[in-house]
Design goal:
By secondary structure, the protein is mostly beta strands. The chain has three helices and 30 strands. The protein has a single domain, classed as 6 Propeller (Neuraminidase), CATH 2.120.10.30. Strand 19 and strand 20 form a beta hairpin.
Length: about 450
């Protein structure tokens, strides 16, 4: 599959584009991980290399492969493109069954959009959005949800969810909305109240929006990805994007908390310091090993470089800096997660069930590459933490999402810890929520 896509890429662009299409030599995937990743010379691609693992789903009885000392089972299956998981205080699990909104006419124009459309169809991501949140309940504690109810429907490409008291917030692609919630209820029929509009529009390139609440519940934090790869449609289309917003719950007033984050998704509060951390998808089309996605603490007012710089002060020459723009120094991310791995899910482990070795560290869902000759990501990893900082190399927690022919049995997205301390993983190709527990 990879070779045929490479040949097709070269034929489409002409033989002179071979180097650009192939993306240059491929480093070991591990070279792009950690606090000091290897950053080779950029190789801009005239035509993007498209190498996405074709989606096939899991055969009967198949599961991902857990790390030693862990076990995995299907908590729920037969879902419709599950992207995100959120655990309520009573242990009920909310699953956002969602995909890109249908009304994005500008996103489908041009040669790059053509290639991206092919990639999304191959990856199983071109299905219509179910636009709902489903509630799963495992009342008997056997690790399998016996209750499944449509909790919310008629949403608009929902993603993140956050509960503060009796206020349930949902991040649609174009707004954060609020619903009243009562502990234990399995369905909400009340109409949503709009808290704040989020950038969307006719392109809405990075459509996923996440939301979490501050520890004291006074503020919300929302991720808003860029409207492009590297501002190729102009910075006017990037207003309010590539950023994390801070929103006052009481008034809806909002400001940019941190900027220059191309596509932030998962967020969580580091348990010992209370600092906000996020995972970010970096830019494409600079070669197989540029640019690493990353895990980073988020500083109030910090600028992380996009689109002008990557990984600190590494200049992206594809993006001119206007003469009248004065940029603040770009903050270097804390920890690289591999190039093109598509880091999406993030949760710090505060439980006990999986063992002390995981306590305080970060579980991360890597959805998997499309712009790399050798696939990267397609797994769930763990990054150990000590004293509020990453403290070692990443560890594979759940693998086997690719088969030996590089077809995708599944692709991990959101991660969360259930009420019993087990890890839940949303798989939007396998249409499963996986439960990772300690092995017997």
């Amino acid at each position: 599959m990879r070779n045929s896509l490479l040949r097709w890429c070269v034929q489409a662009a002409g033989a002179s584009a071979l180097v650009a299409c192939a993306g240059g030599p491929v480093l070991p995937e591990s070279a792009g991980y950690g606090p000091n990743p290897t950053l080779p010379e950029p190789r801009p691609q005239a035509i993007p290399l498209v190498n996405v693992a074709p989606a096939q789903g899991w055969a009967q009885g198949e599961t991902p492969v857990p790390a030693a000392g862990l076990a995995v089972n299907a908590f729920a299956s037969g879902l419709d493109h599950p992207r995100w998981v959120y655990v309520l205080p009573n242990g009920d699990v909310l699953v956002a069954e969602s995909n890109a909104p249908a009304n994005r006419p500008e996103e489908n124009r041009g040669l790059r959009a053509f290639f991206m459309g092919l990639a999304m169809r191959a990856a199983g991501a071109a299905v219509p959005s179910a636009d709902r949140i489903t509630l799963l309940r495992d009342a008997d504690g056997d690790g399998v949800a016996e209750t499944r109810e449509i909790f919310l429907q008629n949403l608009h490409s929902p993603f993140g969810v956050a509960l503060v008291g009796s206020d349930l917030y949902v991040a649609n692609t174009d707004a954060i909305v609020l619903f009243p919630y009562r502990t234990g209820q399995t369905r909400i029929t009340a109409s949503p109240m709009r808290v704040v509009a989020l950038p969307a529009g006719p392109r809405n390139h990075h459509w996923t929006k996440n939301v979490i609440a501050s520890p004291d519940g006074a503020r919300l934090y929302a991720t808003v990805g860029s409207n492009s790869n590297v501002a190729e449609h102009g910075m006017d289309e990037e207003v309010g994007r590539a950023a994390i917003w801070e929103i006052d719950r009481a008034t809806g007033a909002h400001r940019i908390f941190a900027s220059g984050l191309r596509n932030p998704n998962g967020m969580d509060w580091e348990p010992t310091t209370g600092v906000l951390w996020t995972v970010v998808n970096e830019r494409d089309e600079l070669g197989n090993d540029l640019v690493p996605d990353y895990l980073t603490s988020v500083r109030d007012g910090a600028f992380y470089g996009w689109p002008y710089y990557y990984y600190g002060r590494h200049r992206d020459e594809r993006v001119p800096i206007p003469a009248n723009v004065r940029l603040q120094a770009a903050t270097v991310p804390d920890y690289a997660l591999g190039s093109h791995t598509a880091a999406l899910g993030l949760t710090f482990y505060r439980g006990e069930a999986l063992g002390a070795r995981y306590r305080g560290g970060a579980f991360i869902g890597l959805h998997g590459s499309w712009n790399r000759a050798e696939p990267s990501g397609y797994k769930v990893i763990f990054v150990p933490f000590a004293n509020g900082r990453p403290s070692g190399p990443p560890q594979d927690i759940l693998t086997g999402f690719l088969d030996e022919r590089e077809n995708a049995n599944g692709r991990p997205v959101g991660v969360a810890v259930d009420g019993r301390g087990n890890l839940l993983v949303a798989d939007d190709v396998g249409n499963v929520i996986w439960r990772v527990s300690a092995a017997p």
